[in-house]
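Input record (one chain):
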Amino acid sequence: MRVLLVDDEQELVETLAERLNIRGIEARWVTSGDAALELIDREDFDIAVLDVKIPGMNGINLRKIMKEKRPEMKFIFMTGHGSQDDFAAGSAETGVDYYLLKPVSIDELILKMNNLMNT
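The corresponding structure, as predicted from the sequence alone:
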């Protein structure tokens, strides 16, 4: 499984990528929407884990562009601002299966990624 992590909090995505790589999941990370779009033009990913609030381009808009470029890619949103009600509203709007609240549990993230890969 190849995963792209996108969040403007570099320490967060760097740590998540390191922890995923230790568990045998190939993970790359970037800190902006523009960098994510450049990377998916060069590399294939199964799943993108996107922060909802990315400066310059929010995660919802980024997902739309990424989905046009890579229709087979699956998406998980993560946010530091939210609730289960936000998840219900946001998932209906975006078609994303999972929202994870920060701080993200690595075990929960892996579970959600495995669930997405098996659908």
